Amino acid sequence: MTDSKNIGLVLEGGGMRGVFTCGVLDYFMDNNIDFPYAIGVSAGACNGLSFISKQRGRAKFSNIDLLDKYKYIGFKHYIRKRNIMDFDLLFHEFPDNIIPYDYNKYFASPTRFEMVTSNCLTGKAEYYEDKSDKNRVIDIAKASSSLPIVCPITYVDNIPMLDGGICDSIPVARAIEQGYRKNVVILTRNKGYRKEKKDMKVPSFIYRKYPAMRQALSSRNSLYNAQLDLVDKLEEEGSVFVIRPQKPVLVDRIEKDINKLTALYEEGYECGKLIEEMNL
């Protein structure tokens, strides 16, 4: 593999499909593969945090083992808290008590790490990095993971935010803008996947106070497909090395089937070995 000191790492989201990324990153940690810069969206942001703190297996344990134990995804949570996921458990109990997050190692890491959110006021992506305030780190990760409609709006610095994937699902352009002309991109869909061309029609009562967010949601499909087109183009040119599932993914964004999740994690670990073929 080429020396990764000038290569960025881009982590797509995808909800529970992010267990694929968990597998890839665990392979990287097992083989001491690191990067000077990384950027993650939604589940990619959460998985990236465990990668930067070098807590091998933590993301898998959170996404599979603890899901099986705590059942933290489901409409029972939406009925109780208007959130399809138990954010109190995920972003407070887990990192503070159940599977402690190593903030000290994260803060000391030389790797720059950006997390992507979507600004409800502007309908644009925001890029945050913080290596000093653990509460703000959690706010950013939570905002980056706040799925539209089924999760409440989350605030970062008193600004209303939602899932980063709404406005920048695959932030390879951001990585290039930050000076990383070569990048490893981890996707959670197979090659050739595209969303329906027809854009989403947002009901009039959804985010009425945030017209820019309504517009961003309505054009989400076309934006995502354009980003995949860009990744394919950069891949052909040789400036990105893409690691993605090798076959259509059967795992849903809010998947709860432990067997499916485990199989996708294991596929991710095997696909992580492809990094040895990289020649950027």
Helix/strand order, N-terminal first:
EHEHHHHHEEHEEHEHHEH
Shape: globular
Taking the sheet with the most strands, its summary is: 8 strands, mixed
Helix/strand/pairing category:
alpha/beta
Cα-based radius of gyration, to the nearest Å: 17 Å
Q: Kindly state the number of beta strands.
A: 8
User: Which ranges are low-confidence, i.e. pLDDT below 50, for 5 or more consecutive residues?
Assistant: none
Overall pLDDT score: 95
Helix percentage range:
40-55%
* End-to-end distance: 9 Å
Count of DSSP-assigned helices: 11
SS strand fraction: 5-15%
Q: If you had to describe this structure to a student in words, what would you say it looks like?
A:
Strand 1 (7-11), helix 1 and strand 2 (37-41) form a beta-alpha-beta unit. By secondary structure, this protein is an alpha/beta fold. It has helices spanning 19-30, 43-52, 58-70, 75-81, 87-98, 103-108, 134-144, 172-177, 211-218, 220-237, 258-272; strands at 7-11, 37-41, 112-119, 125-128, 154-156, 159-163, 182-186, 240-243. The chain has 11 helices and 8 strands.
Question: Can you summarize this structure?
Answer:
By secondary structure, the protein is α/β, with parallel strands linked by helices. It has helices spanning 19-30, 43-52, 58-70, 75-81, 87-98, 103-108, 134-144, 172-177, 211-218, 220-237, 258-272, and strands at residues 7-11, 37-41, 112-119, 125-128, 154-156, 159-163, 182-186, 240-243.
